[in-house]
Design goal:
Layout: H1 13-20, E1 29-33, H2 40-51, E2 54-57, H3 63-67, E3 72-76, H4 85-96, E4 100-105, H5 117-125, E5 127-130, H6 136-149, H7 156-165, H8 170-187, H9 193-199
Parallel strand pairs: 1-4, 1-5, 2-3, 3-4
Helix pairs in contact: 6-7, 6-8
Length: about 200
């Protein structure tokens, strides 16, 4: 989940550039948005390490959280739960505190709900950087990196076959690379298109 492991592609380049610009941000709060598997949490984790930020899931926010002092905070999955007055008060206090806050969510902040009108206004004015669903370039680069991490070189045809044939998500790429490597090791075979086809789902 390090920044060096995050693959930059057209669908996330603007978000990556913003995160990399820290602490020279034009505003103290921003959001990374996009569908599952788009890299929001990975990029937020990379920023948290750089900014020495505390990461918390939105449902876990409570009054005790505000008693702690953090220079920076990541709030994950902000739009995954129904807003409550208590949680919204904590979120507004975080935004008013002056520290850096990075949110993640599926929808852009303009669509987030809140019980507090002032918090809703802050959402609507917030900087937001969308991350798209992984494309062929990103998924192919991820597969190559995962094979390289295992010190395995595979032909481009293997990567192309994988990207075309399995679920288009980083999790599916991770799982398939592990299966292909395990099969190749157990059978003492190179990873080829033929081997990949043998373990492809129907």
């Amino acid at each position: 989940m390090g920044r060096e492991d995050f693959i930059v592609a057209p669908g996330n380049r603007e978000a990556v550039a913003f995160v990399d610009a820290y602490p020279e941000w034009p505003a103290p709060a921003a959001a990374l948005t996009g569908p599952a598997g788009s890299g929001k949490s990975h990029l937020a984790a990379a920023w948290a390490k750089r900014a020495n930020a505390r990461a918390v899931e939105a449902p876990a926010l409570n009054a005790d959280f505000l008693k702690q002092v953090f220079a920076a905070v990541v709030v994950e999955n902000i739009d995954a739960v129904e807003p409550t007055a208590a949680r919204d008060a904590i979120l507004f206090a975080l935004l008013e505190g002056g520290g850096a806050v990075l949110f993640t969510g599926r929808e852009p902040p303009s669509r987030w709900r809140a019980t507090l009108p002032d918090l809703l206004s802050r959402y609507r004015a917030m900087l937001s950087f969308p991350l798209w669903e992984p494309d062929d370039t990103l998924l192919g680069a991820l597969a190559r990196k995962l094979f390289a991490d295992r010190q395995v070189n595979v032909p481009d045809a293997v990567i192309d076959q994988m990207v075309r044939s399995i679920e288009r998500s980083p999790a599916a790429i991770h799982a398939f690379v592990a299966r292909a490597d395990a099969k190749a090791l157990s059978e003492k075979r190179p990873i080829t298109v033929a081997l990949v086809r043998e373990i492809l789902p129907d």
